[in-house]
Amino acid sequence: MEERRVWDETQLRKYDVPLVYVPKYRYDDPKVQELISANKPVIITGSELVASALNWDVDYLKEHMNNSNCTVIFSKNHKFKYFDDKSVRPDVKAKFVPPTRKVGMKMAEFAKRLREWKKGDERLYLQQMLNNTVGPGIVHDFLRFHWDWINSLQKNMSWGPLTSNLLLIAMEGNVTPCHYDEQQNLFAQIRGFKRFIMFPPEQFECLYPYPVYHPHDRQSQVDFERPDYMKFPKFKGAVGHEAVIGPGDVLYIPIYWWHHVESLMRGGYTVSVNFWYKAGPTEKIEYPLKGYQKVAIMRNVEKMLLEALHDPQELGPLLRALVLGRYT
Ligand SMILES: O=C(O)C(=O)[C@H]1CC[C@@H](C(=O)O)C1
Ligand SMILES: [Zn+2]
């Protein structure tokens, strides 16, 4: 049956990227397991995975997890580009200008700042792992997640252990720029609508990730709002897979798949919880290798060469000498 549209295209940001739609199936449709085992994205409806949390708004969370110290990211614009400058070399860190800043605060303070936010203020994005500091009400809701469904999925897909659940509370219009993660991800939407633009690992060449030693490792260098086609010409060839999810929907984000994420403009703040799983063991190696396996190999080659060469500036010339006129 035709579903009632509660959002419209004007709430989506416009990018110069052709899009195809991510398919949507009910959780008990065999197509869901078929697509997930093929590492393809799918919107899963009716799973009731986080039905016990559909009442998680900031007032309820303020009530039931106000002892938790939450990580809140502040940005001068709508983009919240992830960075990790803990493990980078001192010379790289010295040159790096963090695009956002992180502050620890209680849910009550976050709720207050959200309520009192006005145009021109820094935007906020709460991103906090659910841990044992949450109150009994949250634990009660968490225990009533539809664990037997997601545990059977984890088992059938031979995924590794659940590593964490990230609670995400974003202001309307917030954007997490395009990046990939090295874990399987079931992304559950609780409040508001989120739009994902995803790309398979095979499109690595179109998305130009930062070097692995950079604080923005795993993030695309391409600014989707103003793509530099001189520097990143292959971005013209990128084709995105679009998914818009709302309360009760779960999106499967396959390991190594790129994803750009945005909370719809004029849609109010959004609440989501993700489920990150370690990858399962690779059964039989089949050739030719899959895209994500080649990405993993390239990461290892970069790390090994950086270890051997010491100076990142030497990596390009060495790889050019290795490849040009010999493998091309
Ligand atoms: O679940 C993931 O893989 C993520 O990237 C989360 C971190 C930023 C989040 C967002 O929804 O904007 C999604
Ligand atoms: Zn991610």
How would you sum up this structure, described in words?
With 328 residues, the protein is an alpha+beta fold. The chain has nine helices and 14 strands. The protein has helices at 30-37, 58-64, 90-95, 107-116, 136-143, 147-156, 204-207, 291-309, 315-323; strands at 19-21, 24-26, 42-45, 70-75, 100-105, 123-129, 162-170, 175-179, 184-191, 194-199, 240-245, 250-253, 258-263, 270-277. The strands form two sheets. Strands 2-3-12-9-14-7-6-4-5 form a nine-stranded mixed β-sheet. β2 (24-26), α1 and β3 (42-45) form a beta-alpha-beta unit. α2 runs antiparallel to α4. It is globular and about 65 Å long. The mean pLDDT is 96.
Topology, please?
Elements: E1 19-21, E2 24-26, H1 30-37, E3 42-45, H2 58-64, E4 70-75, H3 90-95, E5 100-105, H4 107-116, E6 123-129, H5 136-143, H6 147-156, E7 162-170, E8 175-179, E9 184-191, E10 194-199, H7 204-207, E11 240-245, E12 250-253, E13 258-263, E14 270-277, H8 291-309, H9 315-323
Helix pairs in contact: 2-4
Bound molecules: 3-(carboxycarbonyl)cyclopentane-1-carboxylic acid (QVQ) and zinc ion.
